[in-house]
Design a protein that fits this description.
Structural class: mainly beta
CATH superfamily of the largest domain: Jelly Rolls
Order of helices and strands: HEEEEEEEEEEEHHEEEEEEEEEEEEEEH
CATH class of the largest domain: Mainly Beta
Strand content: 25-35%
Mean pLDDT: 91
Number of helices: 4
Shape: globular
Helix content: under 10%
CATH topology of the largest domain: Jelly Rolls
Low-confidence stretches: none
Largest sheet: 9 strands, mixed
Length: 372
Amino acid sequence: MLPNARPEADRIVKYDAYRAFQLKEGIPVITGFAVDDLRTVEVKPWARLDCLGTYINLDGTGDTNDAYVAEIPPGAKMAPEKHLFEKNIYVLNGRGATLVGDDPNSQTSFEWKKGSVFSIPINVSHQHLNGSGSEAARFVAITTAPLTMNLFHNEGFIFNNPYVFEDRLGNPNSYQGEGKMWTATTGRTNAWETNFIPDVETFTTFSWKERGAGGAHIKFELADQTQTAHISEFPVGTYKKAHKHGPGAHVIILKGEGYSLLWPSHETPDTYLERVNWKPGSMVVPPNGWFHQHFNGGDIPARYLAFRWNSQKYYFSLGVAMEGETDVDVNQGGGQIEYENENPLIHQLFVEALKKTGTKSKMSEFFKAGEI
């Protein structure tokens, strides 16, 4: 035995507080690169929240954040909850309402439906109710629970903490869809600040030419969080430029059909390539530092919603490409591959995919003459 080494029986076993908590929850856990359809994943009884649910821990989160699907039976309500981790919610199906506030006599309430997005400020009590007596309501939530639990490793502190974050409570009218628009820190995109978005499937987007393919974009700042969100939409017969960033970007398809390609930044698509086909309800989380690229292979504009780290208001980066670098050429120190520098295999695969659907490519509008 080496000098001062611990005897075998006295060695400390490393403790993963988040995994230990999740194991006690008693619901399924989905892993991998992507989820084919959040609307149809299996859910099981979830005693703590008095609903049905499943956790989703995809590889690309890097154990920094997670997702779960919760389903509320017709006419039912979930158990009240409050916690120190951030949480953003996208409604997949159904309609309902949420009560917000620690004092039952002065709670704020708002109604939501399929396509709504909302966020509750951290450590504020809230309860979700199904507004239909005949249809289940289902949503997906993206949370910072893994990072929070492994940082504090104390469930009582996280779920039973009396501290009130006065600076995060915000304006009650923000739960009714009110908000304010301002220019993002990059100076190239717009951001909408609120706690509740009635329908992200129809929310207005703005041109973001730096990301290519005639796409449009809008950022969201929700409940004064370090997590943020954005919508991206791109036309039929096009694809976005490849880029890389840090972990935990949960990309949820709102409309359209297509696919995403993912490959490690130290590899080329010729040597290693993951392909994820998607449709409305699909979700993919690109791994930390991997290049990835989204392709519209259908006959309508493709739109997705992404929940991720690094808001416009609060600096917080876990990744390889800081905010503002994901639309800057890698040759200039950014995280994006320009069309003229991409591997020829990328466009070749896109042309082959369009042949199967009979859709015409419009990428000649975005490549320099003679490049395709």
